[in-house]
Amino acid sequence: MNNPKNNFIAVFNDSVKGIESYLESSFQKGHISEELLKKAKVNVLRNLQDWLFNDRIDQISPRAKEGITKAIEEGRWPDLVEAYIDDVAFGTAGIRGLAALSDEELLLLNKEGLDAPILKGPNTINNIVFARTATAIARYMETNSYSSIVIGFDSRIQGKAFAELLASIFLNYDIKVYFFDTAVPYPEVLFAVPTLKADIGLFISASHNDRRYNGFKICSLDGAPISVTERDNLYDNYIKKTEIAHVPEIVFERLTKKTNFQVIGEEIHKPFVDHMRQFLINKELIKEFGPKVLIGYSAFNGAGRNTVPGLLENSNFTNVQIIKELFEMDGLFPAFQEHPDQQPDPGDESAARIAIEAYKKEYPADFKNKNLDIIIGTDPDADRASVIIKVPDNQLEIFNEPYTLLPADEIWLLVLWYRLQHLKRFDDKFIAYTHVTSDSIGRLAKKYDVGAVRTWVGFTWIASAVNKVWQGEKLSRDTHPYLIYETNDMNEMRVNNISGLEQSYGFGFFGGPAPDERSFGSGGHVKDKDGTLGALMLAEIAAYAKSQNKTLIDLIDEIYLNPEIGLFVNYYEAEPRYGAYRSLEGFSKKVSVLKNALKILEDVKNGKDVRIADLKVSGGEQYQTGKYDTLHNWKGFPDEGIRFWFSDRENWLILRPSGTAQALRFHTQLHFEVTEKDIL
């Protein structure tokens, strides 16, 4: 009788020749370094061998090896290297990666389910990786006497099936599972965890990445991102030490009959919506002008599609027009077909153009007559919000279009400004924002005598900083180098957070110190960004602008023309334009660009005349926290970027790498002082 393992031996031997030949060729062409060549030769072949000869994989995913074998037979060496070079990185908020390495495989996954015979490996998102990682989390929960978990999902391909897979793992460990059986915004899961007094939340999502991606986010018992300490403990002592062989039985249908499985929905959704409405400032103004604001809404085929329109309508914004083409939940994101890496990111210019064109096609008269005031967009998991705004007639020559996407820096500047107008006390307030977010935010805070904490990039760090302020810790880069960029005007009285803000369209309210470890902050919302809340805040400002017979651009101009603020011009661009560089060549390219930038920084420090876009560089800094050193085999990897200053510290360029993907981000800012004589 033929032994299947004999077949795999022949297949593996073929893969050794093909992979080694591909790696050597890449090295000879200068696409990868010698160090990366050595790592790849060891890791890829070892991991591939482990998967091909692992019997437990046959039980978890019976057709997995069919997909692997097919990829080897087709000579897909770059894809095989990418799938087996490492484990999926466990980042600050969970795991995320390619669930399919091509659109053809994505369609097969969509059609045939989690066991579709596509190329799977430890560095892709698949049912085997999910099962192993969930088992590690379950063991972590068991050790810490955690007894319940909330699980949700958004519109990603096979999101519900992945959620059911996770649920089955936790049910095997007798952990109570609260299960959203329909797609919901991620912030609703964050709200559910402390509301239900659960211990952890998991959410199937790849945020605004392109359609081939998936993953899951993890939050702690207070609905905040897990802390750095908690994350390191979970990864070092559980995820790294959990093998595929440790994965328990996976039979979702039978396990859900257990009493510790509970489907949830409206009992969370209604309190979630009601909770957000308390943050509206002027309900009388909204009652009069809310119905007069014509709002377009783009769900970008994601989980905000019911929550955002319902929230707006229940808050007296009754004139909402749904962009139907982008409304239905669809993880294939059919409007985003221009490029395989194109992302359903509401803050991306190309996504904004898609929304504008779709609105124009569906509501031609309102578009032509400029009746539309704003278009609000949320990403697939609805934790980010953007706004497309009407351009005043007297500025059409500047923008060259009737509607334009408002950059996140200006959105949150506007939201903060509006809320500061209505505060009666400032000496106990502070904001938290990231170091790549516009300095206009800091200037506005200073104008109103509000403290400011500036963190490294991501709401994980914003939430952690707010928590430490609540605990009475004095923050600085010297005392908390892994967390803090700088602080301004902070003291022991400033414990009430009125805004958490980041350049990538994230916004939230934390409030004052939480009464206990399982609660929101006093007077605050979920301890992470929330696009559904952001949508509501933007709608209120649009109503205020309507009451003043102004546009949002008019309001922003008024802020910039204040001599205490001045004009800020912020710009962001990703490289590559969409997605990430692929495979080892992408890794090498990212590292090469960073090392070249560090050489330029060294020239600056040595007093050489360095210019960028004809602007003289006056100084610079490298930022590293150590969180991605191991992943890049680079002690001092500049995970938070390299900054070049021009004339002063409010004029700069930052080159910042993604920690877990092969991509780079460029952030730049120019500032112009405004005096009374400059104002017409």
UniProtKB/TrEMBL annotation:
Gene3D superfamilies: Alpha-D-Glucose-1,6-Bisphosphate, subunit A, domain 3 (3.40.120.10)
GO biological process, alphabetically ordered: carbohydrate metabolic process; purine ribonucleoside salvage
InterPro entries tied to this protein: A-D-PHexomutase_a/b/a-I (IPR005844), A-D-PHexomutase_a/b/a-I/II/III (IPR016055), A-D-PHexomutase_a/b/a-II (IPR005845)
Start and end residues of each Alpha-D-phosphohexomutase alpha/beta/alpha domain: 124-243, 271-388
Keywords recorded for this protein, A-Z: Isomerase, Magnesium, Metal-binding
Molecular function (Gene Ontology), one example: phosphopentomutase activity
One Pfam entry name: PGM_PMM_II
SUPFAM superfamilies, alphabetized: Phosphoglucomutase, first 3 domains (SSF53738)
PANTHER family listed in its UniProt record: PHOSPHOGLUCOMUTASE 2B-RELATED (PTHR45745:SF1), PHOSPHOMANNOMUTASE 45A (PTHR45745)
Family: Belongs to the phosphohexose mutase family.
Name of the protein this chain belongs to: Alpha-D-phosphohexomutase alpha/beta/alpha domain-containing protein
